[in-house]
Amino acid sequence: MSVTVHFINSDTQLCSRLLGCFSFTERHTADELSKFLLNVVNDWGLENMVAAAVTDNAANIKSAINNNGWRHIPCFAHVLNIAVQKGLESVHPIIAKVKGIVEYFKRSTLALNKLKNLQQQMGCEQLKLIQDCKTRWNSTFHMIQRILKVKDSVLATLAVTNNELNNITSQEWELLSQCCNVLSIFNDVTEEVSAEKIVTISKVVLYYGFLDEHLTSNIYKNDTLHEVEKMATEIQNVLRTYFGNLEDKDVVAQSIILDPRFKKQGFSSDSKFLVAKTVLSRKLQSIRIGTENTAAGPSTAYPQTAQTATTSSLWKTFDNKVNSLIGQNNPTVAGIVELDKYLAETLIPRSMDPLQWWSERKHIYPRLFEVVKRRLCIPATSVPSERVFSKAGWC
Questions:
Q1: What is the pLDDT of residue 55?
Q2: CA dihedral sign of residues 199, 77, 384, 137
Q3: Three-class SS string for 60-96?
């Protein structure tokens, strides 16, 4: 198990910085983990800069994060792995048959060469079978996907090298095909949510919605095989247990609102959006911004004339009245004005970078920008950091 801590840097850049990915076991107590993580944070001088901790769902890890007073975000990819592994138990017999065939070709050089020659003779792409890894569900998906793709050449090879393994029935081939169709979207989501250079925390509710809708449609299809229906139901139950209340987490809800690609459209219902908007409005009221940051931005900040400077006393009452109306002297009003103005802007295309958008508007929405720096830096999964430490040989 691992924990990844993400923090905000002290300047105005939007970024996500990796503190660390540490490997633990269930033998470590929550207190031990809590002290260790706190010591690392203190050693790096990051005491007040932790945005959130993204971890798996081990009880000792979660307790350690809570003990340190940090926000906890469950690793999205970890939950997907739990859910799909649970679902795959429903189709274990056919998965075992496929594993047996794959292992045979991995062991037998003769069979592997025969497969390669047959693929060449049949004018097919020369592809090897893929062996799955017990801890990574998507490796099982790739194993199924590959054997379906090279089915004809595999069966032809088994017929002359080991006909005993040629024991998958036509109905079981259909079962594998349906399993592949159900799991394909999970592979797509896993790959996208594990990306290293894009904002992902604001997408988790949408991801969950896509997955739940996909599973429901497969469960109620007339031609869905019983085993596949059971697999999809098992996966859906696990996802609903972990993700059913995602929007109730302030960090997640605020990240959705503050992503200019989604805003209100990223929520499952209007009521969820309104609750999140109310909470964010209250948070904005507590943010104080210095005068140098409250300018409307380069596009609307006009230089003062000499006459304005020399006659400012004449306009004092008027200026105070206008400032009170636009909220410049009232943090409560200013925060609400910023939020309403931001929400009124048109959504940007999903392909655009929300961090770049905010970087260009940090002076227009200074209070919102302060919250953005503490929300959009959080990844939905710890996979990117684990990947870095794995390559370095530290995990």
A1: 86
A2: negative
A3: HHHHHHHHCCCCEEECHHHHHHHHHHHHHHHHHHHHH
